[in-house]
Amino acid sequence: MTSRISRRTVLRGLGTCLALPWLEAMMPVQSVLGGEPAVKPPLRMAFLYVPNGMHMEDWTPDQVGENFQLKPIMEPLANLREYLTVISGLTLDGARPHGDGGGDHARSVAAFLTGAHPRKTDGANIRNGVSVDQVAASKIGAKTRFPSLELGCEPSATAGNCDSGYSCAYTSNISWRDESTPVAKEVNPRAVFDRLFGSGDASEEGRAKDLRRLKRKSVLDFVLSDAKSLQNKLGTADQKKLDEYLYSVREIERRIVGGDKLPVQEEGVPDYPRPVGVPADYVEHLRTMFDLMVLAMQTDSTRILSFMYTNDSSNRSYPVIDVREGHHDLSHHGRNKEKQAKISKINRHHVVQLAYFLEKLKNTPDGEGNLLDNSMIVYGSGIADGDAHNHNDLPIALFGRGGGTIKPGRHLRVPNETPLTNLYLSMLERMGAKTEKLGDSTGPLTVLDS
Q1: How far apart are CA 113 and CA 107, in angstroms?
Q2: CA–CA separation, 183 and 131 (whole Å)
Q3: What dihedral angle (degrees, nearest 10) is formed by the CA atoms of 91, 94, 98, 100?
Q4: Would you say residue 152 lies in a domain?
Q5: Does residue 229 lie within any of the structural domains?
Q6: Which of 161-165, 226-230, 276-280, 415-419 has the least mean pLDDT?
Q7: Do 378 and 423 fall into the same domain?
Q8: 3-state class of 91 per DSSP?
C-alpha cells in the first residue's frame, strides 16, 4: 500500500536538497479515499518583462471577447489560447515624464511592477516603490523555501547613468523590496540550479561542487539513496512521475554544464557582452532559465517569480532570425515599414520562447490539473510603441487559470487609463496576499472572472 508522505519531503545528500513535485502520496488519506475534496495545489505567479515596447499593430487583436484572431506576434501561442487573456487598455502612468523629461525606458522598467514614478537621479538617492512580487513575498513567501526568485538574461546594475539621467538601477531591475532597494536578478543558470538544489550548508555545498567537478558526478548522485528509499513507498503513478522529474533535473544539469563556452563570433555580427558562465546562445540561455523556473514552481520552492528577457534600452541583435540591427535602434523606427517588420520579428521571437515556457507548465502535472492551470503569468512591456514611447494601452497578456478563478481564452479591453496595477491587485487577492493599494491602483480588475 502506498505510504503517505509530507508535501515538504525532500531528497537529501552531501550539500544537496532536492525538493519534490506534487505527488498523489502527498494528499491526505481522506482525499484519496474520497472522504474529502482533493487538496488543491498552491497558486503561483510570475512576471515576464520584454524591452523596448511592441509593434502594436501585430500584437493587439481586432476582436474583443472569445472569438478573436491572433495577430502575427502572438501566433506562436495558438496551442495555448485556452490559457491566454489579452488585456488592452492598461496604463503605466508612473512611467510618464511628469515633468522629468527623457528617460522612458528607465521609468517603464522601474514602474512596471510598482506603479510608482521613480525619482530622476543617477546617484545613490534612488526612490521607487515596492513591487507586486515583493508585496506577495512579504505576505506568503514564508510558505516556501524561497520567498521569491528574480531572474533574467542580463545582469542588474545599482549605479551609473543609463537613460537620460536615470540610474542603471532603474533600467535593469523590475523587482523592488522597498523604495530604495532593487532586488538584483540572477542571470547564471548554474547559480540558479545550485541555489535550488543546494542544502543551505555552505561547507557541504562546496565539497559537493568539488566532487561533481572532479568526478563528473550529477547532483542526483548525492541523493540516490534517498530516492531509492522513497520509490519503495510510492504507487506506480507516483514512481513514474518521480522518474520523469529526476530525468528533467539531470537533463537541465547536463545542459548547464555544457553551456559555458562562447562560440567564435560570427563575422558581421555585433559583439554582444555576456556575463561569464552563462550559455553563449541567447535562446539556450532563455530556455534553460525557463526550465529552472518550471522546476522551482513544480517543487513549490517558490510561488513568486520575476524575469527580464533583457534590460530595457537593450540593443541586442538577433541574427538567428536574420535581424542584425540592434533592437533599441530599430524601435525608433519613425514609421519605417522595414524597421517595423524587424521589430515585429523580434517581438514574435520573444513570444516563441514564451510559448516554450508555457508549454512546459502545461505539460507538468499539478494536482488534478497542470502547473499552468494553477498559475498566473504576466507577459508584457512598460512601453507600447517603442518609437512613440507611450505608456498607455500597453501590450499585456495574462496566462493561466489562477486555480480556476480566471476565465481565459478572451481579449479584454478595459477603459483607457486603467492602471496596470489594478491587474496586480486582483492577482494578489487570488494569491492570498490581498492588498488595498499598490502604486497608482484604483481597485481590482474584476473583468478577469466575469
Answers
A1: 11
A2: 10
A3: -130
A4: yes
A5: yes
A6: 276-280
A7: yes
A8: strand
Do both 94 and 1 map to the same domain? Answer: no
Spatial separation of the C-alpha atoms in residues 383 and 105, rounded to whole Å: 8
How many angstroms from the chain centroid is the CA of residue 316? 20
According to DSSP, residue 223 is labeled S
Last residue of a domain, one of 246, 277, 308: 277
Domain, as residue range, for 76: 44-187+283-449
- Report the DSSP pairing between strands 365-366 and 375-380: unpaired
* Strand partners of residue 379: 48, 397
CATH number of the domain enclosing 96? 3.40.720.10
How many domains does one find in the chain?
2
Contact yes or no for 106/120 (Cβ under 8 A): no
Residue 145 neighbours by CB distance under 10 Å: 17
Report which of 139, 118, 136 is spatially closest to residue 182, judged by C-alpha positions: 118
Q: pLDDT at position 277, please?
A: 61
Report whether 358 contacts 77 (CB < 8 A). Answer: yes
In a domain, 194, yes or no: no
Q: Predicted confidence band at 268 (pLDDT cuts at 50, 70, 90)?
A: very low
